[in-house]
Amino acid sequence: MKEIGKPFLQLITLVLSLLVLASLLVGVIGFVIYLSYSGVNLPAFKEQPVVAQVVNTPVSKALMDPSGMWQAPDWASVDTEPNADEIKYGRELIANTSEYLGPNGKVKKISNGLNCQNCHLQAGTVPLGNNYSAAASTYPKVRGRSGTSEDIEMRINGCFQRSLNGGVLPRDSKEMKAMVAYMNWLGQDVPKGEKPVGAGIYEVPLLDRAADPVKGKLVYDRQCVACHMADGQGLAKADGTGYTYPPLWGEHSYNQKAGLFRMSRFAGYVKANMPFGATYENPMLSDEEAWDVAAYVNSLDRPTRDFPNDWPDISKKPMDHPFGPYADEFSEEQHKFGPFKPIKEAIAKLK
Ligand code: HEC
Ligand code: HEC
Question: What's the gap in Å between 68 CA and the centre of ligand 1?
């Protein structure tokens, strides 16, 4: 009896321990699934590069309190306007600029294939998405770049020549009038002279160091490459009317005199809006990541263009205008990448 019982007992023990192991495994897997649904952050299974961890700060805090934020008027109400058709055409041109005015534009061929909306999200209506809320209320205004009073038509043509690296629209063209009509409609509730909360671009707090293109490339490879591609050229639409994902550098991108070529504009735009889907309420990049990715993208090739009449008074140049001469002592290199705090202080003293 003993001789037969021993192997039998061993078999029972083996089966029992297998059962225990299996239920343990089920328990662990169940717990992991529970955790991932309950929103707890699990450690990534993939090895992260060492430097990447330094910049990979989780971000979840809203950049601004949503109460009091500017909101675009209800689009459905546009039909009550006497010039509803003009306003609608203006919005259409801003959303689908390339189709009308790009390299194969059906109205004119005067720009590089970008849409205004690529940088002025949802036709310029998104809080901190480079919106047009202050366009009607603050123009005409004297700007340091031109040294003259600019009206809204001049400002629009500024983006055509720089951000869309192209030509200008005649002031009295149907297209220019439509864009202006749309911006006036958007800003109808903003009192003259005022800039509403959430207008334009978020100001990312300044770093104590220079923005770093090498760290920026790591951010790019992790957070941007899926859409804007490794070569930065994005994804063109098959029908040639523009981009699904716009290019970030190279010959089809904005030129070196465009707003986004300034580090603070790029970092601020991206911080509140990229990777696509991020918002000021749900930003996805840390401040360092935003500055560093700006440094990476803006250190790669893009069109150059001379505007000899820019900045007639050099003391009006912003801290991050990367072309001298300057009224202060800092180098072009520091004006491009920072650290910006000392420059900002010097500029404040000059005033
Ligand atoms: C590559 C990005 C980009 C594209 C494309 C672009 N813009 Fe801009 N635009 C900017 C930036 C950056 C600013 C400056 C924002 C700031 O400094 O706060 C700006 C500012 C403006 C302003 C001034 C807003 C204000 O409140 O002062 C207007 C108006 C404007 N753009 C119109 C246009 C129009 C119209 C188009 C299309 C023809 C266009 N932009 C395309 C990046 C772009
Ligand atoms: C999921 C896709 C996606 C990801 C990821 C993404 N973007 Fe974008 N990006 C877009 C789209 C789409 C637009 C144009 C938005 C529109 O037209 O509504 C855009 C526009 C832009 C623009 C302005 C237009 C231009 O071509 O200059 C910049 C700058 C930009 N993205 C930077 C970044 C950076 C930096 C990252 C990484 C931190 C990033 N994006 C990640 C999809 C993406």
Answer: 23
272 lines ligand 1 (CB under 6 A): no
Q: Does one domain contain both 336 and 239?
A: yes
pLDDT tens digits, 91-120: 999 999 999 999 999 999 999 999 999 999
Structural domain includes residue 93: yes
- Does this model's pTM top 0.85? yes
Domain span including residue 229: 213-350
Q: Report pLDDT digits (tens) over 136-195.
A: 999 999 999 999 999 999 999 999 999 999 999 999 999 999 999 999 999 999 999 999
Q: Are residues 238 and 273 in the same domain?
A: yes
Give the dihedral sign, CA 333/339/342/347. Answer: positive
CA dihedral 37, 41, 45, 47 (to 10 degrees): 160
181 and 217 both lie in a single domain: no
CB-ligand 1 contact for 161 (6 Å cutoff): no
Report the distance separating Cα 141 and Cα 152, nearest Å.
Answer: 9
